[in-house]
From TrEMBL:
It comes from Streptomyces bingchenggensis (strain BCW-1). The active site is at 493. This is Aldehyde dehydrogenase. Residues 258-717 form the Aldehyde dehydrogenase domain. InterPro entries: Ald_DH/histidinol_DH (IPR016161), Ald_DH_C (IPR016163), Ald_DH_CS_GLU (IPR029510), Ald_DH_N (IPR016162), Aldehyde_DH_dom (IPR015590), NAD(P)-bd_dom_sf (IPR036291), ODC_Mu_crystall (IPR003462), ODC_N (IPR023401). PANTHER family: ALDEHYDE DEHYDROGENASE-RELATED (PTHR11699). Keywords: Oxidoreductase. The keyword Metal-binding does not apply.
Amino acid sequence: MRFLDEHDVCAVFDLDTAIASQRAAFVGNAGTSRPTVNAVVAVPDPHTGVPLAFMDGSALTMLRTAAASAIAVGSFERHRCEIGPDILLASRHVVVDHEQTARQNRGSIVSAGAQAGAAELGIVELGRVLIGDEAGRDGDDDTVTYLSAGLGVQDAGAAWSVYRQARQARQAEARGVGRSVDWPATPAMSPDVTVPRAPPSLRPALIRHSPATSLKELLIMTTAAGLTTVTIRRAADATPLITEADLPPDRHFVDGTFVEGSADRVIDVVDPCTESVIARIPEGTAEDLDRAVAAAVAAKGQWARLLPKERSELLHAIADRLAANTELLSRLESANTGKPLAVSTDDVGQAVDTFRFMAGAVRATTSMAAGDYAENHLSLILREPLGVIGVVTPWNYPLLMAAWKIAPILAAGNTLVNKPSEQTPLTTVKFAELVADLLPPGVLNVVNGYGAVVGARLAEHPDVHMIALTGSVASGRAVARAAADSLKRVHLELGGKAPVVIFPDADLAAAASSLRVAGFWNSGQECGAACRALVHESVAAKFVEQLVGEVREVVVGEPLAGEDVEVGPMVSKAHFDRVTGYLERAKKEGVRVATGGGALDGPGYFVAPTVLADVPEGAEAAHEEIFGPVITVETFTDEDEAVRRANDVPLGLSASVWTENARRSHDIAGRLDFGTVWVNSHLVLASEVPWGGFKGSGYGRDLSIYALDDYSRTKHIMHNHGR
């Protein structure tokens, strides 16, 4: 099945209006045969991404926007022999007719009644139409029958001749680019017949457009009118996700206690599912930050002198405390971020595991062996704490990213000051409340506020020995600039634009299933998300079909709407606008929306899980980090092109390779310029292995013993023992 291109012209049916009215009239011979049904079910076409309408089983009819893509046969082949919907093609109009009436009337069906019915259904005028590659198969009598009705000719042989002529013309063009074919006019309708306007209640938004409108333009308009058919599942129970008692204190945590801010200003914390304010936190100042740093400085000496065993035991105690409060932390995280409870619960579990791993690793550190590397001189290598670490954590994984930083920082013997995202601070402040009695005062400090104030002061503070940030590339640059004057160390885990390189021998079903999770986990607000598929051109169409099938099953909803909810809202209105802005620009550039493609009706900052197909090289959507529920699909022709295009992005956090060829998998993985490369999987993490990127994705490593190294310094002591 070929995909439509910008040379195709399509008809558009306003499904939203039909569903709202719960009635659908069919065009009949002279308007006399117009059965009415009481239900309309919208089902997306797997090849075009455009909704189809299914009527009752006795007269299963599809209203297709792709008037000539498979002649309504190939996409739903299981219905072809029993029912066989017909699409009638006239020189300027497309009419969808009841199958039985079509067989009786053949080419004479386009009549005055048909014209009126077409207008009532919102059929859009056409100038030219195109038959798809596999619209019919040689020797398929059923397809010939449909073609004879559709082409407006009585003789099936003549219809087949016209079809083959069109198909040969198409095959003559390189790489399947469409060629328009002018069909013979139906005797009952001249090209200049005026179609009556539909009643306002049934008139689709796109009914007025020129017959010369290209598919590129039409797809833009179609999507703008509501291509997305996903609905948000709302919680049926009115029980709130959190109560007032679940919230942490609305203060800063400094020197082992909660303290008021130096300013009276507060920041609203918004539930992105409902757009309502659920809490307020103090807007921190440079003065608040200075007080926290002073507390960390005062505590660092005693904490650094603890034995690894002692710090390990405290980290295990923190892990136990988190595990005991998993349900509370999960609900609080979901209330603040909107993420499904399954994702929040996984976050808490991974946070617990991070503390447990670091608790063990700090007791088993390794270094080069002591020995004489110069005559009569014994060399010893020590790992020492850095001192005070400034930590800036992001809004997408508030608790988990805090754990990724706090656990190795404490294990290595440092103290810290953490500035959580002002949008999602609740679980970080709650963490401080839960572990306050476990840690000495000043070891852990949390200051709320904006990055431009609190974050900037943290990065430039002369008593902070290292600044560690997980966030955007822009934030990373700002932190690095601020840290330059004091020459403090910088640890950056920034954005990603992970390519998923799929070769012809790959298990396409497994890849599509994996991307359903890896592309839309945490609503795509994930630095390592599988957001950019690079697929070999020979299997691209099949892969897109399978991927779209997976994505259309994704459940979008609120945290309490069910355990099967997979995708929640964007974290904020600003980010919602950013993601939808990328989608709108992609559509204006002619990128094909295979499914999804836009915002969902509020309240809440929900975006439909989206697949953008046929994305050209260099397109913004394939080059920049969208950070939402969006997967782009590009094609390549050979391995060298795949590697070149995969690497041709400024970010280098993660990638994956899909192939059954072991030699190829090793070779391609080695040539990809990314910090983590998976083979036949994506977004699988473990506390024992490092996480971090190359290029614009920053430097430094989270997780594993490499994080312990990052948050400590190497000291060489040499003893002259000559006598």
